[in-house]
Write a structure and sequence with these properties.
By secondary structure, this protein is an alpha+beta fold. It contains three helices and eleven strands, in the order βββββββαββββαα. A hairpin with an 8-residue loop joins β8 (about 120-125) and β9. The longest helix is centred in the C-terminal third of the chain and has 26 residues, at about 185-210.
Length: about 210
């Protein structure tokens, strides 16, 4: 396999890091320079970076019905680029400094959908927008009984107003294909499920027999 990476973290120097804002989110100012592909080093570059911590997301899946659970809630940032800022999403939440991501996932499933999760399967993690934020999202699939799931949820203290939808995986993939579902964590999670559904069902069936 060809080694694609040229540099690593030792090839960047953070000259100065400054706190610019402390509120619901934090913004840090970075002054840095780095090695160049053509040789030598860059001039000092200044960037503002959103520091919101890491987050988790989970796609609950019921293997008995082939249904998935998605939640619907308003996302004001979507208003700038689409006429409907109520998005269909995976259950998600901030880790608030915890690295016990599975516990955070189970807590969020209770708060946002009122469901208990059975087996969890780690999908992957990814950087949400590394040009402007340090956030990394940790994605999970979860086996769950969705036969009684539905209703309205969310924490009033956090201004949440959440509607739970249970729908066939095939319908969720159709909404992905036609662009209705267009937020990164849900796009990646549904694509992952489409690629791994058969293997995951065999794995969960084997775990149940053990």
């Amino acid at each position: 396999m060809i080694n694609i990476s040229t540099f690593n973290d030792k090839d960047v120097e953070v000259v100065k890091k400054t706190s610019l804002y402390r509120g619901f989110f934090k913004i840090e100012g970075y002054a840095f320079k780095h090695r160049l592909f053509a040789g030598g080093h860059s001039e000092i570059i200044h960037r503002e970076i959103l520091e919101r911590g890491h987050a988790v997301a989970v796609l609950p899946y019921d293997p008995n019905t082939n249904n998935v659970l998605l939640i619907e809630q308003i996302r004001i940032g979507a208003l700038a680029s689409k006429n409907n800022p109520w998005l269909l999403e995976c259950i998600a939440g901030m880790a608030d400094g915890s690295t016990d991501y599975e516990s955070v996932v189970r807590k969020e499933a209770q708060e946002e959908a009122g469901i208990e999760l059975d087996q969890l399967e780690f999908m992957m993690s990814y950087l949400s927008s590394p040009g402007g934020t340090t956030e990394r999202l940790f994605l999970y699939a979860a086996r769950a009984d969705l036969s009684q799931a539905g209703g309205l949820y969310g924490l009033a203290s956090e201004g949440e107003d959440i509607k739970v939808h249970v729908l066939p995986l095939t319908q969720a993939l159709e909404l992905l294909a036609d662009g209705t579902i267009d937020n990164a964590a849900t796009v990646i999670s549904l694509q992952w499920m489409a690629l791994n559904q058969t293997r995951l069902m065999e794995q969960w069936a084997n775990q149940t027999r053990c």
